[in-house]
Amino acid sequence: MKIATKFIHAGAEPDPSTGAIMTPIYQTSTYVQEAPGVNKGFEYARSQNPTRKALEEAYAQIENGKYGLAFSSGVAATDAVIKLLEPGDEIIAANDMYGGTYRLFTKIFEKFGLKFHYVNMQDTNNIKALINAKTKLIWTETPTNPLMNIVDITAVATIAKTNNILLCVDNTFASPYLQNPLDLGADIVMHSATKYLGGHSDVIQGCLVMNDAALREKLYFIQKSCGAVPGPMDCFLVLRGIKTLHVRMQRHCENGKKIAHFLRNHPKVKTVYWCGFEDHPGYAIAKKQMRDFGGMMSFELKNDNAEEVKRVLSATHLFSLAESLGGVESLINHPATMTHASIPREERIKNGLNDGLIRLSVGIEDADDLIDDLNNALG
Ligand SMILES: *Cc1c(COP(=O)(O)O)cnc(C)c1O
């Protein structure tokens, strides 16, 4: 089945009680049983909900996986993966990733005796060098947030398989429209569905998708035991969002390309980080593992003193200054003080995330209007 058809029909079955084409919002906490243990597969809504079930099926289908699990946020989905581990286990994580993931690892899980190593995964030898008998998980993100570095998923998956280590890929930036890590050998795909999957900046949600039944059972057990499940209304919103993912992503990609080139040619811009440039160090791998290059990018100004950066960040009108990404409306963001503020400055700078970096989530407005807006702001 082609992607457009899949995204529209994923998880969609007419409601068995009414034939409703859209899965209803089953706003209930519990389900009436005929006799103890005699029920229709639904007992209590932390464990099962029909709206969530339809969405979990959709998650699985759009990532070419067997099983999907929905969580109350992206970080709740990440949290569930880490809870597969035992004290003493080691995790190798990308050194350029979502700040909230870094915060969860360092501030919450380190104190439970887990050891995290952060490495530059563009060179997969850095991963190999850290593997030992305690290594249980590799956590990566590609394209990375916010520097748009590319990690070779197939290469990392080979290392993980050879050493019997789980590989989880945060696929939020690419979305399943651009990239399907399970097809490339990953064990788990994680998404902040808050971003492209929801697509309309109106919901917080996360998901995991996997192929292995035993892994699914473990993660389902964590999902219901820890209880970070999304409500049915939120599940409905993401189900609706997924139906237009391919149409939105096409436009995100078209607009992203135009804006990346506009910025690169602008006299006041020093560097543009976008993985669709042929001279981007990860271009060949991006071309191999992604269908297109998306609408996320970052850039630095030639004059990157704090005042000028602040002025530009406040001078756009169509690009709203806000955290988050992946919605239909364009956003501008300052990683150093916003999305990545929880990473210590020294660590940030070491990884190339400078104080002056500006990140864009290019929306699906008219590209000419977006370019005018940036042009006026750059001055
Ligand atoms: C937003 C984001 C997350 C966290 O997801 P929430 O839904 O905000 O909890 C994780 N990874 C990436 C790449 C993100 O952009």
Please describe what this structure looks like.
This protein has 379 residues and is of the alpha/beta class. It has helices spanning 3-9, 50-62, 74-82, 99-109, 125-128, 153-162, 175-178, 213-226, 232-243, 245-264, 283-289, 306-315, 345-350, 367-378; strands at residues 67-71, 90-94, 115-119, 135-141, 166-170, 188-192, 206-210, 269-273, 296-301, 320-321, 331-333, 358-361. A seven-stranded mixed beta sheet has the order 1-7-6-5-4-2-3, with helices on both faces. It has a five-stranded mixed beta sheet with strand order 8-9-12-11-10, with helices on one face. α4 links the parallel β2 (90-94) and β3.
Which terms would index this structure?
379 residues, alpha/beta, Aspartate Aminotransferase, domain 2, Aspartate Aminotransferase, domain 1, 2 domains, 7-stranded mixed sheet, 5-stranded mixed sheet, 14 helices, globular, binds pyridoxal-5'-phosphate
Number of helices in the DSSP assignment: 14
Whole-number count of domains: 2
**Overall pLDDT level:** 96
- Largest sheet features: 7 strands, mixed
CATH homologous superfamily of the largest domain - what is it?
Type I PLP-dependent aspartate aminotransferase-like (Major domain)
CATH architecture of the largest domain: 3-Layer(aba) Sandwich
Structural class: alpha/beta
SSE ordering: HHEHEHEHEHEHEEHHHEHEHEEHEH
Instruction: Walk across the major sheet and give the strand order.
Output: 1-7-6-5-4-2-3
Ligand roster: pyridoxal-5'-phosphate
Helical coverage, percent range: 25-40%
CATH topology title of the largest domain: Aspartate Aminotransferase, domain 2
Low confidence ranges: none
Look at the structure and give the CATH class of the largest domain: Alpha Beta
- First-to-last CA distance: 47 Å
Instruction: Work out the number of β strands.
Output: 12
Instruction: Report the portion of residues in β strands.
Output: 15-25%
Shape: globular
- As a whole number of angstroms, the C-alpha radius of gyration is 21 Å
